[in-house]
Amino acid sequence: MVRLITHNLLACHVKGCNSNNFPLEFKDVQIELREAEFNPDFLKGFMPKLEWKALVDAARQLGDTSLPLELPEMLDDDFLKNLHHVLLEIHVEEGTMTCPNCKHEYPILNGIPNMLLAEHEIG
């Protein structure tokens, strides 16, 4: 499943594409919202691993503007609930993720991203 918690870790890995290859841009996506159990401790522990600007930009590409542009110092319940929703409840079911550098497209079908490359693209 493509959720933003996963998307935030993905970069293009085409041979020779090693700058400006993150974050992958969403295009022509269909999303589904699925409830997930709220766990504030998990969120607080995972936050240092997040690329904040990439997360906010990806959420906005998917139509969610609930996250602030800058990571707040105070992590109140409202913020954590919005973060939970963006990271864990928005599922990209169909569409593509495109590298901002080389424009390689990674298709998403039935919620599964295809990150496999053709032989000549492997670096």
UniProtKB/TrEMBL annotation:
Record's protein name: Multifunctional methyltransferase subunit trm112
Subunit comment: Interacts with TRM9.
MF GO annotations: protein heterodimerization activity
InterPro entries, A to Z: Trm112, Trm112-like
Pfam families named in the record: Trm112p (PF03966)
GO biological process: rRNA (guanine-N7)-methylation; tRNA methylation
Protein family (similarity comment): Belongs to the TRM112 family.
Domain of life: Eukaryota
